[in-house]
Write a structure and sequence with these properties.
- By secondary structure, the chain is an alpha+beta fold.
- The strands form 3 sheets. Strands 3-4-8-7-5-6 form a 6-stranded mixed sheet.
- Helix 8 crosses helix 10, helix 10 packs antiparallel against helix 12 and helix 10 packs across helix 13.
- The chain starts with a helix and ends in a 37-residue tail after the last helix.
Length: 485
């Protein structure tokens, strides 16, 4: 469309909106606003020259075209747009949490995402967020690498990794990296591995690892080290990666996509990082893709060595442009602290069961009347002297073995067979006159009429001499404890 036609089109649009030239007063116009707008009771037409004409008074639109920007200004705006980074909150690596949070995050999203995230927690119970600052893929791989070694808990294996990573300095030198440029990054990686080895056995405690990766200096150094290792691996294995690069050489691709900080990892870089670092360590990686592909579950791709299909595996969740860390239930169980091993110290040498003797019975001297208000609680019989104090140590009547009275307190003699009635196995001497027994404050009707009372005939250690008739109320009938009939 030419500039003149564009102006004519904008002019036509202005006429249809009822614009007036400057100085026109709508309030003083003799024509109603509807009559001044073409298409409302009028038929607009165009002249032979293409200029809009109408039976209504002509309107003019003063349209001022903005000045055109130079190529330099446009390029500068494009650069600012590319360099803009929104403020991202949260830790570099978050704490492990339930994957139900992902389901809740997508509950109002597209139906495909709703369906896939709904079944995700059934297999993958937890996940860990990674800050999306352009390094999320690199950081997710690096953290999972250390965490998996911690989960395995083999100190010798970690020391082997220390030796292998030191030897990879030769690969960096071969790729043309100066040692004084990368040595500080390597030191941070090796220090963290040494700390993990020294912490074992740690029962899966990842607090130290989480603290290290949320330290910007340590995290950035480790990520840069892994970027340089990936670049060196690709440069020394050109034939494996050049066929997948359509326009750039491997050298150019590494310079623009692998080595610069805060450039997100792509599929080729992910493959190279896994080939250089993860597979030689005897580990495997499974990446799950949460996208709009057909299906009810997330698609997955596993990276492993053919000769080691059962290698310890960590998992990443990929959502377009972002990586997080995903866990199966068994992964979380292996990382949880184990049961505490309790050490019991004996004050003396343990006594064999056969020689065990019960502790001596403590005499009952305290007032337990407060407990008698509790349903089911009742006081047993306790022999009492006239002074009101217990005459001997209390023995529970429940156990027939322990509920015997000392033969030193009463003069007793054996009793012969007296017909079918079985009296007590002991009978008092005829000359013995015991002191009158007061009504025991501990005894209740519930206990007195139960088989726990040794004076009750159903007690297994029935003592007839302990039975006392209840006081009779002459002519007034039986009263309960509250004095009611």
């Amino acid at each position: 469309m030419s500039g003149q036609n564009a102006i004519l089109k904008i002019h036509h649009w202005g006429q249809r909106q009822g614009f007036r030239p400057p100085g026109t007063n709508f309030a003083s116009s003799s024509l109603p606003l509807a009559a001044n707008r073409p298409g409302v009771g009028q038929n607009p037409s165009f002249s032979a020259t293409g200029v809009f004409t109408s039976t209504a008074p002509q309107r003019h639109l003063n349209f001022i075209m903005p000045p055109l920007q130079t190529d330099e200004e446009i390029a500068n705006l494009q650069k600012l747009s590319n360099e803009y980074e929104p403020e991202i909150e949260g830790p570099l690596v978050g704490k492990r949490q339930s994957s139900q949070a992902i389901t809740a995050e997508y509950q109002n999203a597209d139906e495909i995402f709703v369906r896939k995230t709904a079944v995700l927690p059934q297999k993958y119970s937890h996940y860990r967020t990674v800050k999306g600052d352009g390094n999320c893929g690199w950081r997710a791989i690096a953290f999972s690498y250390f965490e998996t070694l911690l989960r395995i808990g083999d100190k010798a294996r970690i020391l082997e990794e220390l030796t292998r990573l030191r030897s990879l300095n030769n690969l960096l030198n071969q790729a043309g990296f100066a040692e004084h440029l990368y040595e500080d990054f390597v030191v941070e990686t090796l220090n963290l591995l040494s700390e993990i080895a020294c912490s074992l056995p740690s029962s899966g405690d990842d607090a130290g690892l989480l603290k290290a990766f949320n330290d910007v200096g340590v995290s950035s150094a480790i990520i840069t080290h892994f970027r340089l290792l990936t670049s060196a691996w690709m440069k020394t294995h050109v034939d494996a990666y050049q066929p997948f690069l359509l326009e750039d050489t491997v050298e150019q691709y590494c310079a623009s996509q692998i080595e610069p900080y805060q450039v997100e990892i792509e599929h080729i870089g992910m493959n190279a990082l896994i080939d250089a670092l993860i597979l030689p360590a005897g580990l495997a990686v499974e990446i799950l893709y949460l996208d709009r592909s057909v299906g009810v579950e997330v698609n997955s791709h596993r990276f492993e060595r053919v000769d080691n299909p059962d290698a310890p595996t960590f998992r990443l969740l990929y959502r377009p442009g972002h990586y997080d860390i995903l866990y199966k239930i068994e992964d979380v169980a292996a990382l949880m602290p184990g049961p505490t091993n309790l050490q019991v110290a004996y004050a003396t040498t343990p006594v064999p069961y056969s020689t065990f003797q019960p502790a001596p019975i403590i005499p009952v001297t305290s007032d337990i009347s407060a407990f008698l208000d509790i349903p089911g609680m009742s006081a047993p019989y306790v022999p009492v002297t006239p002074s009101g104090m217990p005459s001997e140590a209390y023995t529970s009547p429940v156990s027939p073995v322990l509920s015997t009275f000392s033969s030193t307190t009463l003069p007793l003699r054996p009793v012969g067979d007296i017909g079918g009635f079985r009296p007590s196995k002991y009978e008092l001497e005829a000359e013995f006159h015991p002191s009158p027994m007061p009504n025991l404050p501990f005894q209740t009707p519930t206990f007195r009429n139960s088989h726990f009372n040794p004076a009750h005939f159903r007690n297994s250690d029935f003592q007839p001499e302990m039975w006392r008739p209840e006081p009779a109320d002459s002519g007034r009938g039986h009263k309960d404890e509250n004095g009611r009939h």
